[in-house]
Write a structure and sequence with these properties.
4 copies of one chain form a homotetramer. Chain A has about 120 residues and is mainly α. Chain A is about 75% helix and about 0% strand. The first copy, chain A, is globular and about 50 Å long.
Chain lengths: ~120, ~120, ~120, ~120
């Protein structure tokens, strides 16, 4: 499997190490970087009217731009995991398990009903 | 290997599907969610003075909170990839290859020199 | 006129001074705070489907929450202006004058045409 | 007084009206715009090491850039106030009064003590 999170994290650690950029990669700075990249991603959709995924998919340039910005977000997330020795895949799995319980059928239905008023 | 991005994306797709939340998971909404979660992550460091990773690591509660918020960011990134049929691991690898070239030794050294004035 | 930006900035400077919080109010920290508060504002609209202003206005609780989060954003913007001796009203006027020129009739019409494809 | 918030809001309302951009200025879109501009502001400080205000002030180009991005944030905040008929100066004053009470001497001292551990 060549899409292992830990392998990609390791590759990114080497990229940073090779450039001696570890001294800039403090957790606070990486958190800023993640927010900034997230907002470059968000900007791709600014002033749109919440188009469906199918509509967005028809625009190859947009999907490429989104893919690119999304990668930036995820790469800095890998950087944060590297700096704090966080097992990111494990953290994701734990959060997913938590969400699976937290949003049980009843809760999920309630949330959906609230949100449907705004659709 | 149990930390495959595509496997985790698939698990998240099932979580969303089971709750019929796909109708809320438009790309624009997911981009908003990623920004919001990124800022919950950022808030963990607000008013700090850029502590080194080693300092942050000593605070177990903080690392747990960061791990949790980081997972939220990454999970919504998986959601975006799912909605737009983006191969996220591939996007990350492409961006890393691009960065490898873009930040060659000379450029990286220049950037470091500029940033060192602010350290 | 009791809605003068400089008067409000001065009041906020006194609030910060009285608590001796100036040492936390570095420009970088305030920029983080502005982003974080902006995202609390954004969260008020998460998973909505871009409702018209008139729809949002009907929900008093939502307008109150938005008003509250918007104030947080603006207060930290005042904090940044205070820290860097920026005349914020002047900065706003200059930017508005710049935008007035930059988005002339032709440019504005082009932008609108592009955006209308996503409405 | 020529730095009245309501006067500046009114000027911005005319700018938007003249370009017929009201249809894009939904509250959700403006919240996105505020977050995006906040992060362009944040980007001005990315990878810095939390320099003091006095240090930042020495860099005229940086202060100009910050001033410019800060204006963008505030202008979109005016846009949000316009769309939802929020009296922004009043909202700011109410929040400041609330903060004045909420962060009484004891609370403020406690917060400072917690934060001082991270300085």
């Amino acid at each position: 499997m060549d899409d292992s999170i830990s392998v990609l994290c390791q590759e990114y650690a080497e990229f940073v190490e090779k450039r001696d950029w570890g001294r800039f990669h403090t957790p606070q700075n990486l958190a800023m970087a993640i927010s900034i990249e997230s907002n470059e991603l968000l900007e791709e959709f600014l002033w749109f009217n919440n188009p469906a995924s199918e509509e967005v998919q028809k625009d190859d340039d947009l999907v490429d731009a989104v893919s690119d910005e999304l990668a930036d977000v995820v790469i800095y997330a890998f950087g944060m995991a590297n700096q704090l020795d966080i097992d990111l895949a494990q953290a994701v799995k734990e959060k997913m398990a938590e969400n699976e319980e937290r949003f049980d059928e009843e809760t999920a239905t309630e949330i959906s009903a609230d949100l449907d008023e705004w659709q």
